[in-house]
Amino acid sequence: MNDINQRHRVRMERKKAVIDQKIAAAQKDIGIIIVNTGNGKGKSSSGFGMVVRAMGHGMKVAVIQFIKGAMSTGEEKFLRRFPDEVSFHAMGEGYTWETQDRERDISKAQQAWALAKTYLSDPSIGLVLFDELNIALKYRYLDLDTVIADLLDRPDMQHVVITGRGAPDELIAIADTVTEMAVVKHAFKAGIAAQAGTEW
Amino acid sequence: MNDINQRHRVRMERKKAVIDQKIAAAQKDIGIIIVNTGNGKGKSSSGFGMVVRAMGHGMKVAVIQFIKGAMSTGEEKFLRRFPDEVSFHAMGEGYTWETQDRERDISKAQQAWALAKTYLSDPSIGLVLFDELNIALKYRYLDLDTVIADLLDRPDMQHVVITGRGAPDELIAIADTVTEMAVVKHAFKAGIAAQAGTEW
């Protein structure tokens, strides 16, 4: 075995020992709250990736889109093929700058949260995705204290994924895993259109 | 209409004008390269979200996992239900610190890239996901120049999603959209196990 391969083996043996120790220490099985925020891509698509991951494990899933809804998306078309496995609700009427009507947006968001609560009370649902909920919170369409209380009151083993820019600090405080998606580069700025399959 | 709602409308009208202008300027329809990197969560799951988004638009998809493979994941179980729509290949044998065998990892990665090239030559494939390719590049299991040349040589309308920590600068340079997933908080550090449906 040559030098580089031998050094690789030694380094990886050490790394494995450290990681195995961390895994042994992480023993709690419990539903977690995952928040995807930041200005970069991948917040919603990561949520949809977790939806199919959960479906692969036989979990029932619910999806509520708080802002999107006016336009049908690839993920919606796809997930509507599995009505017994996923409850899919596009409750918004587009982005807030499209509607320009705050009272209607508030009323839509509150209807969506009333529905969200029914899933947060149902232990048969393994994972819920609240897509763009952060936007509804940022614009104060929903009362943050109520949302947080309802999230904390859910079944022990239920996972929640929340997406959208500008996650409020109070939500980050109660979340288990929080990722900030940061823009390094964006095709849109280079004059490439939002396309089926990549953006919607 | 009260004050806050009126101000909201004015602000959103302005925002809509700016965004509509940007959309009008972004006219190119072309296959793009998307890179998800960084130490945070959501790199692979975002890739899988894009896979189902593309499937929702009727595209054919190919997935090659360069590192994962020893353990069946939720996304694999799920996507194997659609053999006519997705070609799924888990070509790795686990993480590099599990195998500790650099020569075998290199040989596996090179087999995986040979397969990747067949999809990068097939215009009927609308989107390819090369999961954890960045790891294979970082450990120099694959020649970066070859990989970049093959990526650039693909069909015009084909999208490519590449995930993994430590994306090389040369790859970022040729990519259209690059997101850095940054850790804000991670459940694992709080002693919560890697669980079905959220981590695998």
TrEMBL record, chains A, B:
Query: Keywords for this entry?
Result: ATP-binding, Cobalamin biosynthesis, Cytoplasm, Nucleotide-binding, Porphyrin biosynthesis, Transferase
Annotated pathway: Cofactor biosynthesis; adenosylcobalamin biosynthesis; adenosylcobalamin from cob(II)yrinate a,c-diamide: step 2/7
Assigned EC number: 2.5.1.17
For this protein, the record's Pfam families field holds: Co_AT_N, CobA_CobO_BtuR
Query: Where does it reside?
Result: Cytoplasm
Reactions accelerated catalytically:
2 cob(II)alamin + reduced [electron-transfer flavoprotein] + 2 ATP = 2 adenosylcob(III)alamin + 2 triphosphate + oxidized [electron-transfer flavoprotein] + 3 H(+); 2 cob(II)yrinate a,c diamide + reduced [electron-transfer flavoprotein] + 2 ATP = 2 adenosylcob(III)yrinate a,c-diamide + 2 triphosphate + oxidized [electron-transfer flavoprotein] + 3 H(+)
UniProt-listed GO biological process terms:
cobalamin biosynthetic process; porphyrin-containing compound biosynthetic process
Q: What class of enzyme is it?
A: transferase
Q: What does this protein do?
A: Required for both de novo synthesis of the corrin ring for the assimilation of exogenous corrinoids. Participates in the adenosylation of a variety of incomplete and complete corrinoids.
> Family assignment?
Belongs to the Cob(I)alamin adenosyltransferase family.
* Name recorded for this polypeptide: Corrinoid adenosyltransferase
The lineage is: Bacteria, Pseudomonadati, Pseudomonadota, Betaproteobacteria, Burkholderiales
